[in-house]
Records
---
Amino acid sequence: MEGEGAATERQRRATASQVDQWAVQDHVFKIYGAFASIPRSAQSVILELQRDKHVEYLTRGLQQLGPSFVVLDANRPWLCYWILHSIALLGESVDDELEDNAIDFLSRCQMPHLATTYAAVNSLVTLGGNKALSSINRWMHDAGEIDVRACYTAISVASILNILDDELAKGVGNYILSCQTYEGGIAGEPGSEAHGGYTFCGLAAMILINQANRLDLASLIDWVAFRQGVECGFQGRTNKLVDGCYSFWQGGVFALLQRLPAFGGEGFGTSDVEVEWVSDSTSEGDDEDRDSSDDNEALHPEQDQEGHQSSSHSPESSTAVHIQHSRHNQLEPLFHTMALQQYIVLCSQEQEGGFRDKPGKARDYYHTCYCLSGLSVCQYSRSKNENSPPLPTSVLGPYSNLLEPIHPLYNVVSRQYHDAQDFFSKY
Ligand SMILES: CC(C)=CCC/C(C)=C/CC/C(C)=C/COP(=O)(O)OP(=O)(O)O
Ligand SMILES: [Zn+2]
């Protein structure tokens, strides 16, 4: 039996976390309230992405990595990837000197650790061009940690470099399957708690090895759908706080699911998953306007678009999210993409450049990368394929907020992914 001390401690922690959540909601709702109370003309200015400021902040960060990126530490390839990918999402590129420095540095640090190798390879793919791509040495190595992130980074790197084979994929499907929890999301290791970061990694890896249909996709969708709360952004796991970086880790899960043919998507080429879909069917047209707030209005924080009270991160519904087709047979996103854009632009964006976890926190490159990646996912969430630009109704704020589309399996900008694919299919 649990001792009185332990029970009291548990209750103290639960209360503290509830108080944290109320404090964050209070902060976020004040921002939305202030936004709703200003004239429309001023609202559209506030919804603008501060592109120039973001590029300035990012370029400064890259320059600060050192004149020739000389120090080798595990964070530098990540900083390179977060910054270069953010710049690419904004449709910009870096100057020749910075590019040369980055290539020289990244080609020297592709071995010691799988996750940093993923960051280095994605950075080089993002820089693109002969020099960057040919600097990648397509080695293999083993050992290192075992978890779902390691599975994903290994499989992602191998896939983008066109060296993925059965030997590397052996056992990966069974391992990831053993990490899907009773909640429906995927944990880092068997027996741990489902988390958005690992759910993205697990699902992406399963798609890359053609085994996504082995997961319980119905419960996975339920789990991820209920991670979007009244703050309009996503939390990483049940009963935790909203955070801008989950815009990609959780939003990216939807981007992956929506590309599967079983969900009306075009597939990923070799990995067209067939899923026997079981859903508690909802009458036609029920949800056709669920995510069509096309007038840039702030959502009332405690209401969904039909005006219902919504409970934050409510766990009680089962299979409440379904494949949605509007009257015109247009694929509807499986999450509230306008609400998420609102959280990213109004709560995560720093007017002076960069993005943060939540109001009150400082900006950083990690959150800048994953807020922008999540924003891109939202903007293209209704696009049938990456070549069809989104309608203005899918983009919150001015259309100039539109970012470059990403390839959701790797989180690199689509055009750079295709260039890399052409390059590595030649030898
Ligand atoms: C490819 C790649 C880089 C993958 C990384 C995936 C990722 C973000 C995993 C999350 C790890 C984790 C358990 C964070 C919880 O932190 P926390 O307790 O501080 O945050 P929380 O309260 O939001 O859960
Ligand atoms: Zn975060």
---
Amino acid sequence: MATTFKSGFVALIGRPNVGKSTLLNQVLGQKVAIMSDKAQTTRNKIRGVYTSDEAQIVFIDTPGIHKPKHKLGQYMTRIAQKTLNEVDLVIFMVDVEQGYGKGDQYIIDMLERAKTPVFLIMNKIDKIHPEELLPLIDMYRNKYTFDEIVPISALEGNNVNTLLQQVSSYLEEGPKFYPDDQVTDHPERFIVSELIREKILHLTREEVPHSIAIEIDEMSYKKDRDVVYIQAAVIVERASQKGIIIGKSGGMLKKVGSLARQDIEALLGSKVFLELWVKVQKNWRDKESQLRDYGFNEEDY
Ligand SMILES: Nc1nc2c(ncn2[C@@H]2O[C@H](COP(=O)(O)OP(=O)(O)OP(=O)(O)O)[C@@H](O)[C@H]2O)c(=O)[nH]1
């Protein structure tokens, strides 16, 4: 009997650091979402595409589902809420080591408003004793009627295949949205901006990282010099943050640029000229369209 091909969009949500990027990387077999011990490293949606013989799952990495503290947070929350209604399935991930908190309740309140099926993924089971798992499952069952509850270790890969099978079983018959070998949709600009952000996160230990965004102003191949020229803006919300990122005599920005350039060169396999600048932008709402526009234009390259 011929089986039908299934496909659909799945939103991956959860509090910062529960392991969403780690799961995506595990599923897709390569580093697409940048990981960091610091919360909130992935601000934008990444679509990781998993394709098997039976199904295609398009993952939407949806960070920012938490109580907004500033404009960018509000923007993200709005996008997140919208996403929950548009996808075919929501995966709500929790860290079994972290207690149930206000952040989780906030997400569950958002889920109550969506009609989409919801899986609860209990991640990091490698960190607890198996006996501790059952009471935790009961606790979450009392909070919300999840369609499935799947304990996994995203880091070690335990139960990840089962999860993929279960996700596929919830999807409806559908087309292959992306070719088999595509793991991310328009990855270059996104990954370049994430690499720059990652360097800032690692080099500055200030409050700054939580309110920055990276905007790629230009990314083009310069034939005469045989380099990829990238101009990117580091956008901050306050002037004081600008000073921290630029650093003494521009030292911090130079360091960020140099480390990011090395990684980008490795990613693109060509020489890179990276120009970074910092701008203060108070009103994030004006940035909505640009934040959405991570499309990589072949012609610029
Ligand atoms: N022991 C263990 N650690 C894990 C597991 N999954 C993720 N981690 C660790 O948890 C930390 C956070 O993981 P991320 O994947 O960056 O978390 P995230 O949810 O994507 O975080 P944001 O990007 O801030 O939304 C990293 O140090 C991971 O190595 C797991 O299954 N077991």
